[in-house]
Amino acid sequence: GENMRLVKTEEQFAAAARLFAEGRRTVCEGCWMEEALAEWTPEFFYAQLKEEKQQGWAVYLHCTKDVPDGMVAVSHKTGQVEHLFITADARGKGLGQKLLDFARKKLPEHDHPTMGVINTNTRAIALYKRMGWRLTGTVLHRYDPAEEGTFAAVYCEELEMKYRG
Length: 165
Hints:
Blueprint lengths: L1 E5 L3 H19 L5 H4 L4 H13 L2 E8 L2 E9 L4 E7 L8 H11 L8 E5 L3 H9 L2 E11 L12 E8 L2
Parallel strand pairs: 4-5
Antiparallel strand pairs: 1-2, 2-3, 3-4, 5-7, 6-7
């Protein structure tokens, strides 16, 4: 069967960090320079997830037959949804939709949760729109290759989406 688990154990944090590394790479390939992608190791994201846990984020791991194949994180403080990633093998099976729904329902105290999405991730944006999320017009981050010390290979933006459903 399949299920969602709150990430608590070291083993679960390690699994989430591996998923995070693969997912972030996939989303940012083509937008990001190779040397920057190389820094995005499971160890890097393990540290980030641990730090975010201290800040009150809850991370959930989706498993199919005990194999972690998706993750999502929520902040009850801010009503944000983040780190929605699915393994390559699990894509196209409606899991993204399921995880996003799950995350939103974990935030009943927030009527209009928000999340960030990279503007180049058009498939995700289209899916989220079908699910009742809307672009707010707010740009959360700009990644510009012309800027000093940036790792962007092409110009891209992280856009804010808000649940309006």
